[in-house]
């Protein structure tokens, strides 16, 4: 049920739309197709939709809590966005702050200006090809083997 929708309104809208269009609605854990014209099935469907909504809220709460905890500990939650880097005051210590990567930030701004100036001729694909021809490091190259970034936590 939690894949059908992540809140009661979405689940009910989907269920009633499928019923109104004459389509069968089948989910794991329910014997046969749902019959939303039957009050028992309709009530059970609503309760399972409510359960899916509560599960989503619990997941969101855990994710927010984990993010707050990792930030407070000075650990990254994933890689920095291209054009940024993590800065540690002490090698191997907590991340103190995030700053613009001097070279990568310049490259991304140039690419954006080129695409915005002439979107017909300059696309993200053509800019990627141009950067490859110029030997510009890829975003992942800024993370791997770059002693200045110090952002690999794995």
TrEMBL record:
SUPFAM superfamilies (alphabetical): Resolvase-like
Region (Disordered): 119-154
Pfam families linked to this entry: Resolvase (PF00239)
Ranges of residues in domain Resolvase/invertase-type recombinase catalytic: 1-74
InterPro entries hit by this protein: Resolv_N, Resolvase-like_N_sf
Protein name stated in the entry: Recombinase family protein
Organism listed in the record: Streptomyces decoyicus
Lineage: Bacteria, Bacillati, Actinomycetota, Actinomycetes, Kitasatosporales
